[in-house]
Description:
Structural class: alpha/beta
Radius of gyration: 18 Å
Order of helices and strands: EEEHHEEEHHEEHHHEEHHEEHH
Strand content: 15-25%
Helix content: 40-55%
Number of domains: 1
Amino acid sequence: MASVLGMDNIKLFVCCHKESDVPKHPLLAPVQVGTALADTRFEGFLYDDAGENISAKNPYYCELTAQYWAWKNIEADYYGFFHYRRYLYPDINARRPYVIKREPTLPLLDKMGYDGFTELIRKYDLIIPKGENMYVPVCEHYADAPFHHEKDLKIAERIVLEQHPEMAEAMEEYLSGTVCYFGNIYIMKRHIFHDYCRWLFNILEAFDQRADTVGYSVQEQRVDGYLAERMLGVWLTSIRGTLKTLELPRVHFVPEDAERYRRIMLNCVLPPGSKMRALLKQKTVRIR
């Protein structure tokens, strides 16, 4: 393991399955996921197949292969995980769960508040994305989402009850509620991150042993990543009130093209987190 560098040792890993422009910011550490299966290695990146790893499981675990690799191989005081096009936005006054911005650059990150992000991170045990109200129970939202299967969530629920019966009430509360935490995005203090990883990967390992994913498409095979999003919500509910927690909006980086302007217009007409947008999502299956 790398040596501990003190309380300034904050690692915000940007998970990339394709070569992406990640600003050379001192907080950001780009990591290539699924490296064990890749034909090329992205220059200047960290790789999730170093040391103890599950890189070969990336088709199922998605960005979680980077989280497992960091858990087993990297020493830090704070661990954070973003995607190549989704970061946390350090705006504590934001009302919406996410905003659209052009592709990330150092000047844009500074404008967004990244020059003071270290101080903000130090104030909290845990920073998570703003919960997004889908106006339908989390369990129903999972069952209806594209490429998701209700039976998989049911298996994960049974495993949680077997391994952590004390979480039964928290799991029922979260899955019957309507607020989702998307993206497997967060920042955690060291001991919290290690506790969470032990909890999550034990559940997913048991799920892999029981699940039947024969015939799943490429998108459906990402089931471990999909489940982890919901398991994060279960875990957050179970520890509510015990940690100093902050919710921040996500920022979605979209290139300067017609698609970007379409999304901006959509967000103006149907703001993220609004009931009308959630209801329309249920009808059209996918706008997000």
